Amino acid sequence: MYSIDVLDYKPSHETPRRLAELEEQRHILLGVRGEDGQCIAVFPNGDFALPLDLREELAGMVGRTVAVLRLSGRYYVREVVESA
């Protein structure tokens, strides 16, 4: 028999999503937190689960437009700068 602690359960619409291979997330970064051994990046279109080692890098980019690309199982982060 299995039991679920109701306090720890998150409905699927509240669960951070993961980037698929070759997917890029590109929006203003609203916040970053560590949760369950992951880095949760908060964007206007939802929360994204990323590797925990990206947390420090992303924390310095809060409030800026950021792109996170998943390529060959690795994540690449950059600040998006609009050219004049």
Write a structural description:
- This protein has 84 residues and is mainly beta.
- It has one domain (12-79).
- The chain is 6% helix and 42% strand.
- It has one helix at 55-59; strands at 24-28, 31-35, 38-43, 46-51, 65-71, 74-79.
- Strand 5 and strand 6 (74-79) form a beta hairpin.
- The longest helix has 5 residues, at 55-59.
- It is globular, with a radius of gyration of 14 Å.
- It starts with 23 loop residues before the first strand and ends in a 5-residue tail after the last strand.
- The relative contact order is 0.23.
- The mean pLDDT is 88.
What topology does this entry show?
Blueprint: E1 24-28, E2 31-35, E3 38-43, E4 46-51, H1 55-59, E5 65-71, E6 74-79
Antiparallel strand pairs: 1-5, 2-3, 3-4, 5-6
Largest sheet: 3 strands, antiparallel
Question: Order of strands across the biggest sheet?
Answer: 1-5-6
Our count of domains comes out at: 1
Helix-strand topology string: EEEEHEE
The overall average pLDDT, rounded, is 88
N-to-C terminal Cα separation, in Å? Answer: 61 Å
Rg over CA atoms? 14 Å
**Which shape, going by the Cα principal axes?**
globular
Q: State the assembly state of the protein chains.
A: single chain
Low-confidence stretches: none
Count, helices: 1
Q: Which secondary-structure class do the elements indicate?
A: mainly beta
Q: Tell me the helix content.
A: under 10%
Number of extended strands: 6
Portion in beta strands: 35-45%
